[in-house]
Amino acid sequence: MLTKADDYPIHQTPEPVAYAGTDRNFYDRYFFNGYEKEGERFFAAALGVYPHLNVMDAAFSFIVDGQQHNLFASRILHMERLDTTVGPLSVEVVTPLEVLTVRIDDPERDIHAELTFEARFPAIEEPRFLRRIGSMTMMDYTRLTQNGRWHGYIELAGTRHEVSTEQWWGTRDRSWGIRSVGMRDPQPNPYNTGPQFFWLWSPLNFDDRATFYHLNADADGAPWNTAGRIVDADGTLSPTAVRSHLDFATGSRHAKSATLELGETRISLTPRQTFYMKGIGYGHPAWSHGLYHGELETGFETYALADMSPADPTHFHIQAICEATLTDPDGRQHRGKGILEQLAIGPYAPYGFREVMDLAP
């Protein structure tokens, strides 16, 4: 089947773009977040394409006044991957790798937005993520990450929130490849001894630079994918050796503080708010990525953040919105802001986790 994408020089196989190899778990995804440099408002958005499942879904979350408001949408893809609109949500690539716009228009829930991301620094290509369970490929994907600024507005329940480039920073990513989507495999691989996944991802904004850090590690703490980058104002990229240390809040798998070491640069992170990733579908029991909901379906939820239990396994995956203090090798300090995404499932020896869902003492 030929689609609009076939008129662009983007083919990766000898087949039309509608056919993405042979793995049913192939996906192609946008993620965005934005936060006030001084303030507590935060938003996140995502849009995912699942060619083999013939599904596209999207979500938008907005944190204001102690509540996280979450809008979900899913539709049949109809094999047309360039129509990036799912009901009330859409993503437009204005200038590739520089400017993108997210739009929301849902009169039923009285939520509307037009938010434009402008790059502050070049996009970073993270090392390819490849993880196998025996002979089965669990993950094989690439992600780019980019820090930027936002302008536009969010309107919720009749109240308009202005978003200006002077006051709002954020991050976007694009990832594509293979990871579990849709319904679970009814026949697990016999080499799969149980759920275990340890993940940190921390893009940070400072006035004159951006930093990036991520870690995937096995149960013993051995990294199987990790990287750190510092991007200066002129776009100079510095790869660095990386380490991290987290102190966990009692009764949770969420960090109460963290330290990142990027070469001789040290960054201290202090979480101030929590964004629950299930608000854009990650681990959500009904709106998990790639699930089939019919021709078009939407949903809406609101969480009172003070009532969210960190012991709930569906709350393990978060982005902590952090104040950041960067100390240069020469001792100079720089203040910034960003996120520390965390997902710790199963055993992880460095922090004393032994069972699938035990919590920090």
Task: Explain what you see.
The structure is a single chain. The chain is an all-beta fold. The protein has no helices and 24 strands. It has strands spanning 26-36, 42-50, 55-64, 67-76, 85-86, 89-95, 99-106, 111-119, 124-125, 129-133, 136-156, 159-163, 168-178, 197-201, 204-206, 209-217, 223-232, 237-240, 242-248, 255-262, 265-276, 296-304, 318-327, 333-345. A hairpin with a 2-residue loop joins strand 15 and strand 16. It is globular. It starts with 25 loop residues before the first strand and ends in a 16-residue tail after the last strand.
Structural class comes to: mainly beta
- What is the rounded Rg? 20 Å
CATH fold topology:
AttH-like fold
Query: Judging from the principal axes of the Cα atoms, what is the shape?
Result: globular
Q: Count every beta strand, where a strand is a DSSP E run of 2 or more residues.
A: 24
Average pLDDT figure: 94
SSE series: EEEEEEEEEEEEEEEEEEEEEEEE
Tally of separate domains = 1
Number of helical segments with 4 or more residues: 0
Could you state the CATH homologous superfamily? AttH-like domain
Low-confidence stretches: none
Helical proportion, percent range:
under 10%
Please write the CATH class name: Mainly Beta
Q: Separation of termini?
A: 55 Å
* Biggest β-sheet strands, sense, barrel: 14 strands, antiparallel
Kindly summarize this structure in a few lines.
With 361 residues, the chain is mostly beta strands. The protein contains no helices and 24 strands.
Keywords:
ten-stranded antiparallel β-sheet; AttH-like fold; 361 residues; globular; mainly beta
